[in-house]
């Protein structure tokens, strides 16, 4: 099928493009952009995007899709639908599934389910160690062969430095991206909230920033020794941003990301013990929040992720410390980014780049772009639609969002995956 | 958004601004605390009388849910409830339904279905009282008997009552709190109560490992040297070392802790001559406090236990009285609204004609 999206404002950071023009799609791929159609192109269908934005499908480096293991709060079919409702067409799926994605069989199961859903591009991340226990290396080569785009320990970082060193060196042998979340379990000490004024007032077991920064320092040293490209996931502290900036200045091939909720929320939101604000790493101080935002603006932080974790009511209907950490974030990734743009905290091109071109580059994949011949994954956004987030109407099976009642300007109206419409919602 | 959430209505208060649930001292006004202290005074006398009961809570059902072990708090609550003539059920939740896999809320709702009017809850998680209060029926009240490291408001109020009994007023007093501030829900509540009652100076004394982050932000002066911290204080509150909450090495040994922070007669002499010594219990003799001080003339530790009953009676009777006032207020409002509605209905034809 041939499709033309007419008169939309096409914003594609990978081409430094921000222009009102037409987008041509042919057989699931981008055929061209411009006033004139490519040679021999005749459209079967026209979509008028006047007054709308046309964005490359977003690339989310971290989103949990419930399956296998937590189907009671969503599966690959339901969560990929939530993804495209948020304009996200490529999703990295961390290995903390049940069973853990540490084998070809689990990777293939995920891929099969994703193919059946055919709604978005699901990229499994393999476990760096067996069962994520941090003890024995997974079959890294087999995982890569099976289609894992990266390896990680999800939220259970390797504590033993020798095991991590070996894992990094073995992964380097097979030239696969390693995503590290830096956290010292000893310094975390079963904490549930940032060690600051709020945890002191509320008596919540506290997690000091050093739980992240000491582990990050160690990880950076081991990454340098192993000579591997590494991606650091979900930074939460100001000092971590400084450390990554210094590492980049020294020429280390490292990249990093931040979860979108860290840019909008802080430890102050934990007042009231609302377990919807229970996340890992914890919401940090206002100073940390400002530093993360500055890091994003300056380019030290390369990508923004949803860290989507759909949870059931029973997981959150518990006292703060007993509840499971996580936010259902696929549908709020783009709206929260747009909010930062509207509040002049971030320019539009940077905002879009950190959820399209940059994450795609980190993985070394041809997605998050509207370049000719790339997969026709894109969304049409009404930048003026005003709406309020109501958890009851969320597409994701997880309604665990702390952003309920927030008003947003700008909404995804249509999403196309491989040239096919996979989501439509006209406000 | 953060600021908006911080200024959210206090869930402890009802529509008339009176105490509905008693979860924490934070967010209450001076008049709320004074009311509790004044009411507790009126319950002191029954203790000395032969018949100690008053019929204030007759027909009400109170359930004590202790998810954590407790002897002193649980017993004083039970006595207080019985002296108010309430029907009382005490459940040791550690050995009951939740251990069989039932969720906390299902347990709570089942007990609520047995027509409970008030839950007295102790739980190991900070904020558990807030959580329960958000999920009980509107007519049910939650009283926090200690949640994690967060709050123990009735203990703080009985401490205020004890201080007031001995010193007349909290205002203008210098108070030192010594020991494991980090893990103590009692200390957090004490600091808040002392601040609201406008104590002149609140000092906390202990090693850095037993202090929360930004302790000063709680409105206190921090001392690591007990000799300096005890100088000229009117009240010394000793706090128990909570070894059960210590997951890592926070002090080298109890012996060294006593050497550095234990309250001895010599150290007590640094405080004002009429200073009183308090301890929320259970006391560890030779760890936090020397026996000579614990049993000495300046110790009011056992009085605290006695006053605990009066203060808990005060809190529960105030909560039930507030509920009755609110119900009456709502009935009056409804009657007024019905009256206005009837009047406007009768006016309607005239207005239409006009």
Overall structural class of chain A, as computed from helix and strand content, comes to alpha/beta
How much β-strand is present in the residues of chain B? 5-15%
Judged by helices, strands and strand pairing, the structural class of chain B is: alpha/beta
Largest sheet of chain A: 8 strands, mixed
The amount of helix of chain B comes to 40-55%
From the alpha carbons, calculate the radius of gyration of chain B and give it in angstroms.
23 Å
Spans where pLDDT lies below 50 across 5 or more residues of chain B: 1-7, 350-354
Our estimate of the beta-strand percent of chain A is 15-25%
Distance between the amino and carboxyl termini of chain B: 49 Å
How would you portray this structure in words?
The complex is a heterodimer of chains A (427) and B (354). With 427 residues, chain A is an alpha/beta fold. Helices cover 29% and strands 23% of the residues of chain A. Chain A has helices spanning 76-85, 104-117, 140-146, 161-173, 185-188, 197-202, 210-226, 238-249, 286-298, 313-316, 333-342, 348-353, 357-363; strands at residues 2-12, 17-26, 29-33, 45-48, 53-56, 58-60, 88-93, 121-127, 150-152, 177-180, 193-194, 206-207, 230-232, 254-259, 303-305, 378-388, 407-417, 420-424. In chain A, the strands form 3 sheets. In chain A, strands 1, 2, 3, 4, 5, 16, 17 and 18 form an 8-stranded mixed β-sheet that branches. Chain A has an 8-stranded parallel β-sheet with strand order 6-7-8-9-10-13-14-15, sandwiched between helices. Chain A has a two-stranded parallel ribbon with strand order 11-12. In chain A, helix 1 links the parallel strand 6 (58-60) and strand 7 (88-93). Chain A is globular and about 65 Å long. Chain A starts with a strand and ends with a strand. In chain A, 59% of the residues are buried. The mean pLDDT of chain A is 96. Chain B contains 12 helices and 9 strands. In chain B, helix 3 links the parallel strand 1 and strand 2 (87-92). Helices cover 43% and strands 13% of the residues of chain B. Chain B has a 5-stranded parallel β-sheet with strand order 7-6-5-8-9. A 4-stranded parallel β-sheet of chain B has the order 2-1-3-4. Chain B is of the alpha/beta class and 354 residues long. The radius of gyration of chain B is 23 Å and the shape is globular. Chain B has helices at residues 2-6, 30-48, 72-83, 104-113, 128-133, 153-167, 185-196, 226-230, 254-261, 265-268, 291-294, 301-353, and strands spanning 61-66, 87-92, 118-123, 141-147, 174-178, 201-205, 221-223, 235-238, 276-278. Classes of the chains: A alpha/beta (427), B alpha/beta (354). The interface between A and B is medium-sized, with 32 and 33 residues.
């Amino acid at each position: 099928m041939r499709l033309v999206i007419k008169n939309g404002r096409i914003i594609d950071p990978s081409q430094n493009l921000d222009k009102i023009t037409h987008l041509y799609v042919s057989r699931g791929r981008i055929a061209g952009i411009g006033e004139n159609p490519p040679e021999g192109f005749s459209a079967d269908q026209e979509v008028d995007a006047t007054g709308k934005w046309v964005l490359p499908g977003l690339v989310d480096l971290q989103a949990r899709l419930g399956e296998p293991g937590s189907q009671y709060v969503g599966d690959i079919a339901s969560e990929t639908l939530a993804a495209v409702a948020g304009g996200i067409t490529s999703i990295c799926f961390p290995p903390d599934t049940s069973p853990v994605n540490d084998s070809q069989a689990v990777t293939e199961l995920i891929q099969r389910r994703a193919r059946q859903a055919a709604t978005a591009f699901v990229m499994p991340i393999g476990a760096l160690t067996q069962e994520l226990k941090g003890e024995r290396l997974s079959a890294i080569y087999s995982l890569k062969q099976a289609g894992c785009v990266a390896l990680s320990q999800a939220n259970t970082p390797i504590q033993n430095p020798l095991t991590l060193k070996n894992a990094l060196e073995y992964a380097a042998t097979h030239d696969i991206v390693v995503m590290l979340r830096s956290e010292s379990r000893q310094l975390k000490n079963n904490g549930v909230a940032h060690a600051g004024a709020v945890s002191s007032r509320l008596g919540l077991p506290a997690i000091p920033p050093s739980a992240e920064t000491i582990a990050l320092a160690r990880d950076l040293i081991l990454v340098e020794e192993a000579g591997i490209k590494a991606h650091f996931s979900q930074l939460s502290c100001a000092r971590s941003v400084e450390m990554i900036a210094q590492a980049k200045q020294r020429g280390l091939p490292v990249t990093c990301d931040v979860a979108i909720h860290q840019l909008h929320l802080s430890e102050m939101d934990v007042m009231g013990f609302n377990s919807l604000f229970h996340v890992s790493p914890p919401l940090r101080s206002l100073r940390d929040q400002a530093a993360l935002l500055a890091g994003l603006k300056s380019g030290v932080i390369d990508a923004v992720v949803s860290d989507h974790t759909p949870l059931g009511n029973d997981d959150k209907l518990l006292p703060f410390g007993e509840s499971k950490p996580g936010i259902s974030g696929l549908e709020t990734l783009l709206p929260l980014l747009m909010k930062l743009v509207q509040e002049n905290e971030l320019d539009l091109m940077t905002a879009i780049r950190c959820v399209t071109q940059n994450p795609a580059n980190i993985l070394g994949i041809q997605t998050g772009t509207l370049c000719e011949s790339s997969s026709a994954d894109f969304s049409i956004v009404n930048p003026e639609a005003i709406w309020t987030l109501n958890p009851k109407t969320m597409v994701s099976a997880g309604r665990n969002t702390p952003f309920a009642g927030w008003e947003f300007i700008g909404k995804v109206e249509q999403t196309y995956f491989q040239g096919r419409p996979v989501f439509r919602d006209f406000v | 958004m953060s600021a908006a959430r911080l200024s959210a209505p206090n869930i402890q208060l009802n529509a008339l601004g009176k105490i509905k649930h008693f979860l924490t001292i934070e967010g209450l006004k001076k008049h709320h605390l004074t009311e509790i202290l004044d009411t507790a005074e009126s319950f002191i006398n029954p203790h000395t009388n032969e018949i100690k009961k008053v019929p204030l809570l007759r027909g009400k059902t109170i359930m004590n849910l202790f998810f954590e072990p407790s002897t002193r708090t649980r017993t004083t609550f039970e006595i207080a409830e019985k002296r108010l003539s309430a029907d009382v059920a005490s459940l040791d939740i550690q050995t009951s339904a939740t251990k069989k896999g039932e969720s906390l809320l299902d347990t709570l709702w089942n007990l609520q279905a047995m027509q409970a009017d008030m839950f007295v809850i102790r739980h190991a998680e900070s904020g558990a009282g807030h959580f329960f209060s958000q999920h009980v029926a509107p007519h049910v009240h939650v009283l926090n008997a200690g949640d994690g490291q967060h709050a123990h408001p009735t203990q703080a109020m009985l401490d205020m009552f004890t201080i007031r009994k001995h010193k007349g007023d909290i205002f203008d007093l210098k108070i030192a709190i010594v020991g494991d501030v980090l893990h103590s829900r009692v200390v957090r509540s004490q600091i808040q109560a002392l601040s609201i009652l406008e104590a002149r100076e609140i000092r906390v004394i202990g090693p850095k490992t037993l202090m929360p982050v930004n302790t000063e932000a709680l409105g206190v002066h921090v001392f690591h040297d007990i000799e300096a911290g005890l100088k000229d204080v009117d009240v010394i509150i000793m706090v128990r070392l909570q070894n059960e909450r210590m997951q890592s090495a926070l002090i080298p040994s109890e012996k060294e802790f006593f050497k550095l922070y234990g309250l001895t007669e010599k150290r007590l002499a640094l405080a004002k001559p009429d200073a009183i010594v308090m301890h929320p219990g259970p006391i560890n003799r030779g760890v936090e406090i020397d026996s000579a001080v614990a049993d000495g003339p300046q110790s009011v530790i056992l009085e605290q236990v006695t006053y605990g009953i009066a203060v808990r009676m005060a809190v529960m009777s105030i909560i039930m009285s507030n509920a009755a006032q609110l119900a009456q207020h709502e009935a009056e409002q409804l009657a007024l609204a019905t009256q206005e509605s009837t009047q406007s209905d009768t006016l309607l034809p005239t207005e239409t004609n006009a």
